[in-house]
Structure formats: structure tokens, C-alpha cells
Design goal:
The protein is an alpha/beta fold. It contains 16 helices and 18 strands. Bound molecules: ligand NPW, adenosine-5'-diphosphate (ADP) and potassium ion (K). Potassium ion binds next to β5 and β6. Belongs to the NnrE/AIBP family. In the C-terminal section; belongs to the NnrD/CARKD family.
């Protein structure tokens, strides 16, 4: 798990590493710049490319100068540096790097306050104006320069953070931010890189290790964590030789209506592929033929219009409710019936979430440890409108604690909020998965994992990871634009096999 730190914490981690490793501040900058350069050279190996490095007079600018010096040493010859003197202050490490630069034959130009901007002929811009030290929105000269650079539409590679993007906290829609094609960031992605508002300002990011003290990073006990492959490998359990279907639980899914039966088929099918010992789905009779031909392994409980089905509650290790269920009075009566009779953690998705949104009192009846899986709109219907993702994140944290449930906020980097106030960002999945029914698959997977006695928290983290990984394995090698939910479900066993090998 990679702790995601705020700018202030990163600053403290820098200081701790400097005094405890020990390493001088300027040598830590040297290390960071070296890590940047090595990644930059993988992306831009052509040494004849024209490059301009724009440097502020803080430590981000210090990095920019060190990076330009190193690229020159590596034989990049079409290189120039523009030092921006919009502030009267300069950090010591910036000054040291400026001094180290001065004997080089690389052109260096200073841009003064209120001055005109020089013409820009380079194809690549290295953005080392401002980094994690940003403490207010850009204005004045900085804003003018960034607007000017943005309209040039060059290939911008940002050092650590795109200039003007706050590392955490709300991102204003009006903010001026230097648009990066690639951000090579130090040690860890910044929290805002994982939220949709960064989308218009950066195409991709890559984190490079600069050797900050790991024990110290972990000791900060950040509420924000990035889930990595190793975490999921630790969670997943092997299957035992003398096990049988009873070992892996009996999942019940309550889903589907005449016109949205596909959702019931998809989630119950995913539940089978994700390894539930037995899967039963509660559907209207109109879906039975489709169920039996789509996924023969799934059993059915038929529910009649206006009549609650007979359910032997004790038979089921877990219940998942909602995909394609509808929001009518029958669906509401069914949900209330489940909440009144079933007292183990359950999974609530889709229409059942919308019913909870309109009948908020039911939220309090969710058994502790239950899992809700809203996408952004469902989340806001449940917990109120949010105008920024940062605010939504804070509500997510607060509601998961208050209701003692797990909230899986589906997104590119899906975020799971847990009852202990942690927020786990997922690192798999891709845009080819933006296709109707994909959420139903996730519900089936998480339900299957709870059936197999994973804790609700483990089921969320592993379920979201496996779901996204299956989508990645299917889409990324051939750059597919779309993968279908059913394909994702069928890929789950292979993905689990890879992780448990
Ligand atoms: N040893 C280390 O610590 C390491 C650090 N590293 C590098 O340091 C970077 C952070 O450097 P930094 O803290 O010097 O801040 P930086 O982003 O250069 O900004 C400079 C100053 O600008 C100002 N300012 C803020 N907002 C503003 C605005 N809107 N408009 C105008 N001015 C504004 C503000 O000063 P103020 O004006 O508030 O006094 C701020 O202090 C980090 O991203 C990484 O690249 C790596 O080398 C690894 C080792
Ligand atoms: N652009 C994207 N990048 C990564 N994952 C995505 C993207 N779009 C959708 N997904 C994933 O696909 C699923 C969609 O869920 P949801 O919106 O509930 O779909 P549906 O309601 O159609 O079943 C979520 O798990 C989400 O994380
Ligand atoms: K920058």
C-alpha cells in the first residue's frame, strides 16, 4: 500500500529523510532530478529534440535546472533554459543549481516580472515553474505565462506537479493550470492526480522513487492509500484440496426486472466466476429462461408481482441487492424485507441505492460492515450534491465512519471508504470499461468474495482490483476501446490465478 501524502506531509518527509538518512537537501534534489531524467529519457530518447526548461526560483525550479544540466550531460543538445524571476525570493538549492549551471554552454534566459515572453520554438517544454509549494491560485505574471504556454500547445512534461494544480484540496474550475502531457512525479502520485478534476490538466502521470524514508512515510498513517498488486496478493487465499462448494459460501443476489434482466444475469454470472460456492438469484419468472440459458450454474428464486418471495435467510452467506431491480413499490417492499430479516453484511448497488436515497431512514438499518457501491451520481443522491471531488471525498470518509459501512465510490480510480476512516484508491481499470452493466459485474464479484469469507473490507479492495485488472488484461494489450461486462466476468478466474501463482 502506498500512503498518499499531502504537500505538507511530503515536505516533512523530505526534511526527515534529509536529517535521518542523512542526505543534504541539494543531494536529495539531485537524486530526484536524476530519477526524473532517467524516466524522461525513456519517453523521449531522441536527443535531437528541441527542449525548453521553464524554471521558477523555488525548489521545483531547482529541479528544473538540475534536470537541464543532466540532460545536457546525456547529450541533449537542442536545450535551453528559461528562468522565471517573478518572485524576489529564491531557495538555496535553486541558487546552488543556478551556480552549477552557469559554466555550461546551454542558453539560459531570464524572464522578468511584467516583461514580454520570449518566442518559444522548442517542441518539448519541461515545466519546473511551481510544484508542491503552490499555496494560492496562479495570478498576475504566472497566470499570464501559463496561459501563453497553454495556447502554444507544446508537449509539456511537468516536474512533480503541473504548475497551478494543487496537490490536494478542491480544484477550482476557473484555475489556470499548465496542461501536461506527462507528469513525472516524485515518490507518490499526488491525491488530486487520482480525482477526475485533474483530467483536463494532465494526460498521464508516472511516479519515480526518490528514496524518502519508508518507515516515516508509513508512520504518518495517512487516511489516503493507493492499493498495489502486492496488497491484493496478500488478501487472496488459496483453495484447499479437500474443500467443496459449501466451503465457498452461498450467495443470494436480488436483482432484475422484465426490462433490466440483463443486470441480474450479469451480476449472478460474475458471482459464479468470482468463486462463490453456490449462487442463487431472486428474479421475476420472466427472466428464468434467459437465466438458464445464460448461466446454467445459477439457481433461481422466483418472485411474483406484489408478493414477497419466501427466502430462507439462514441459507445464505451474503446477499447482494439492486442491479436492475427497479425503484417501484415492490422493489422498496423487497428491500425493506431484506433489511428487516437479514443481519449480516450485505451489498447494495444500483436501484437499491436509489431507494436508500429516497428513504434515508433505511441507511441506518444497514448491518454494520455492509457495502454500498455507488457511482458519482448515486453517491450524490445518497449523501447530497458536491461541487468538487475533494468535498465528495471528505463526505465519503465521514459517512463510512458514521454508518460503519464500506462505501465503494466507482470511478477511474475507484475509492473505497472503510468504517475506520481510511480511503483506498484502486490502481486498475481503464476507460474501455465505461460500458453499461460493468457495475453489475463488480457487485457480483464483491458478493462472491464475501460469500468466500473475505472480510467486507477485503472483498471491496480485492473485488475492485480484480474487476479493473480483468478489464486491463482484456483492453490494454490491444488498445481496445470497449470491453464488455460479460467478458470481464469470464476473465476473473485467470486474473485470480495470476495473482495467486
Ligand atoms: N528537498 C526537498 O524539499 C525536495 C523538493 N523537491 C522539489 O521541490 C518542490 C517544492 O518546492 P518549494 O517548496 O520550494 O515550492 P515550489 O513549488 O518550487 O514553489 C516555490 C514558491 O512559490 C511560491 N508560490 C506558491 N504558489 C504561488 C503562486 N500561485 N504564485 C506565485 N508564487 C507562488 C511559494 O512561495 P511564497 O510566495 O508563498 O513565499 C513557494 O514556496 C517539489 O515540487 C519538488 O519539485 C524535490 O527536489 C525533492 C526534494
Ligand atoms: N473511465 C473509466 N476508467 C476506469 N474504470 C471505469 C471507467 N468507467 C467506468 N469504469 C468502471 O466501470 C464500472 C461502471 O459501473 P457503473 O457506472 O455502476 O455501471 P453500470 O451501472 O452500467 O453497471 C465501475 O466499476 C467503474 O469503476
Ligand atoms: K511543475
Amino acid at each position: 500500500m502506498l500512503p498518499l501524502l499531502t504537500a505538507q506531509q511530503i515536505h516533512e518527509a523530505d526534511a526527515y529523510t534529509i536529517s535521518h538518512e542523512p542526505v543534504t537537501s541539494v543531494n536529495l534534489m539531485e537524486r530526484a532530478s536524476k530519477a526524473f531524467v532517467s524516466r524522461f529519457m525513456q519517453h523521449f530518447p531522441d536527443k535531437a529534440q528541441t527542449i525548453s526548461a521553464y524554471c521558477g526560483s523555488g525548489n521545483n525550479g531547482g529541479d528544473g535546472l538540475a534536470i537541464a544540466r543532466m540532460l545536457n550531460e546525456h547529450g541533449y543538445r537542442q536545450l535551453n533554459v528559461k528562468v522565471v524571476r517573478f518572485s524576489d525570493k529564491a531557495t538555496d538549492d535553486f541558487n546552488t543549481n543556478l551556480h552549477r549551471f552557469q559554466h555550461l554552454s546551454v542558453p539560459l534566459l531570464e524572464i522578468e516580472k511584467g516583461g514580454n515572453f520570449p518566442p518559444e520554438d522548442s517542441a518539448i517544454i519541461i515545466d519546473a515553474l511551481l510544484g508542491s509549494g503552490l499555496n494560492k491560485p496562479l495570478s498576475g505574471d504566472y497566470e499570464q505565462l501559463v496561459k501563453h504556454l497553454n495556447q502554444l500547445e507544446k508537449t509539456v512534461v511537468a516536474v512533480d506537479v503541473p504548475t497551478g494544480l494543487p496537490t490536494e484540496g478542491a480544484v477550482s474550475k476557473e484555475a489556470t493550470i499548465l496542461k501536461a502531457k506527462l507528469v513525472i512525479t516524485f515518490q507518490q502520485p499526488k491525491i488530486n492526480f487520482l480525482l477526475p478534476e485533474s483530467g483536463p490538466h494532465m494526460e498521464s502521470w508516472e511516479a519515480v522513487d526518490i528514496g524518502l524514508d519508508d518507515t516515516y512515510l508509513q508512520s504518518l498513517n495517512s487516511p489516503y492509500q493507493l492499493i498495489e498488486k502486492g496488497d491484493i496478493k496478500t488478501i487472496l487465499k488459496p483453495r484447499h484440496k479437500f474443500s467443496n462448494k459449501g466451503t465457498y459460501g452461498h450467495a443470494l443476489l436480488v436483482a432484475g426486472q422484465a426490462k433490466t434482466m440483463g443486470a441480474a444475469l450479469l451480476c449472478s454470472s460474475a458471482c459464479v466466476y468470482a468463486g462463490a460456492g453456490l449462487t442463487t438469484v431472486c428474479i421475476p419468472e420472466s427472466g428464468l429462461t434467459a437465466l438458464n440459458s445464460y448461466q446454467a450454474e445459477v439457481m433461481a428464486i422466483i418472485r411474483e408481482q406484489d408478493q414477497l418471495p419466501e427466502i430462507e435467510w439462514d441459507k445464505f452467506s451474503v446477499i447482494g441487492v439492486g442491479p436492475g431491480l427497479g425503484k417501484d413499490d415492490n422493489a422498496l417492499a423487497l428491500l425493506k424485507n431484506i433489511l428487516a430479516n437479514y443481519h449480516k453484511p450485505m451489498i447494495i448497488d444500483a436501484d437499491a441505492l436509489n431507494l436508500l436515497a429516497t428513504h434515508q431512514e433505511l441507511l441506518q438499518q444497514l448491518p454494520k460492515g455492509s457495502i454500498v457501491t455507488p457511482h458519482m451520481k448515486e453517491f450524490d443522491r445518497l449523501f447530497g450534491e458536491h461541487d468538487t471531488w475533494w468535498n465528495r471525498l471528505q463526505t465519503l470518509k465521514q459517512k463510512a465512519q458514521e454508518l460503519q459501512i464500506n462505501i465503494v465510490l466507482k470511478n477511474d480510480y475507484t475509492i473505497t471508504g472503510t468504517p475506520d476512516g481510511k480511503l483506498y484508491f484502486n490502481s486498475t481499470s481503464n476507460a474501455a470499461m465505461a460500458s453499461g452493466g460493468m457495475g453489475d459485474i463488480l457487485t457480483g464479484i464483491i458478493t462472491a468474495l464475501v460469500a468466500q469469507k473475505y472480510t467486507p473490507e477485503q472483498a471491496c479492495l480485492a473485488g475492485v482490483y480484480l474487476h479493473g485488472k480483468a478489464g486491463d488484461v482484456l483492453a490494454l494489450p490491444n488498445q481496445l476501446h470497449v470491453v464488455l461486462p460479460g467478458q470481464v466476468a469470464a476473465k476473473i478466474p485467470a486474473v485470480i490465478a495470476q495473482l495467486t501463482a
